[in-house]
Write the structure tokens for this entry.
Amino acid sequence: MHPIVPMAVITLVLSAALWCGMLWLYSGRTMRFVRLVWLGLPLSAAVNLLVKAPIGEGVGALAGIEPGRSLDTPLWFLVLLFMLAPVFEELIKVAPLLAPAVRRTVATADDALWTGMALGIGFGLGEAAYLAWGMMSAGLYTEYPWYAFTGFLSERLLVVFMHGMMTAVFLRIAKGGRPLLGYLAAMGAHAVLNSGAMLYQLGVASGWVAEVVLVVMLIAAVLILERIRPKRAAAGRAGDTVYYSAGE
Amino acid sequence: MTAPVLASFRPARSFGWAWLLAIVLLIAASAFPLFRPEVVPPEERAALWITAAIMVPLITFLLATLLSIPAMRYDLTNDGLLLSCGPLYRYRVPYAEITDVRRTTLTPTLWSSMRMPGLALGGVPYGDIGTVRMCATRMSRDILLVTAGKRRYGITPAGEAAFMATLMPLLPRPAQAGSVVPGSETALVEG
């Protein structure tokens, strides 16, 4: 068994429990949106195998460019590879909304926020499984013990939430009547999120740069979510049991 | 000299300790490479020391918190309410400063704090009312919220009615005991 497998299982279980739990709690202790998470699960594998890989390999073959990324690769091709994920992943994450039954869950801006969060979390979980499968099928890193993959755990745990946030912002803005702006916001955030990893792959930045970018984006995402998510108004406190009040 | 304790109450039971134990084990698992430095590439071994510098104090703190949970209690003294969970979390709330006591449900935020299902300790930010100093075995539901001046405290006594029956006579002014705010449930004050 490849050593990534135990860590991938831990990562998927922990990420699903944490972010589905958050979704359930924040959306009003309802399973209504959590049920949508599974719709996003196959989308990462689909977009990678059916869209990104054929485009990257096809354009590279047409232009006679060797596979792989380095500073010798033409800049336009690097930009193309860099933009494949933001452009197509942010589109496919909302593809389940083509189904009328899913579209009906988005009645309000708050519904749009939680529906996007659910679809993005599902996509992120599927992406973690897809990456682990890719590592296994390529036979990479077999010399390491399973507990050496804690970086996979910490990175994927956060990226699952980030996928949820990007799709949540997309759909919330779209529900406000500006779908193109929502898409561009999600795509731009995705590109910034991937920028550190791209620089690392090109050998122009250390691995910690990608981690710093992820942490900064995470803090920004939490700030945004805490600002835009619905909160219980004072009227919602009507159900409180008041034992004592000095009347101040 | 500490004031004599008139009555002492335990928190409601919960499995918050299991969550905290799971977190400790998870963090400890991420420290495995410290015991097998040979699996780490030589150029990344400096990271082991950084990991140790972060992990050891963090695991020690979490273990101390875990071991403190059985000691969580709410003491009523002559002049104040003492909330404690071992040596790490202790709050004294003078009765003279208490302006509001209510059972409510709070909305947690994503900001980091010592709160998880079945446990909330220390300052915990909530989306609807800001930071609450928690000493509780529930994270958000049915929290007994005590407002004292500008500070808020969250507790979860096991026998809430008995706790309130003991606390009410100690509060400074005639309370609107049994009063009901518009749309609220009937207050359960006894005694």
Summary: The mean pLDDT of chain B is 85. Chain B touches chain A through 44 residues (CB under 8 Å). The first helix of chain B runs from residue 16 to 30.
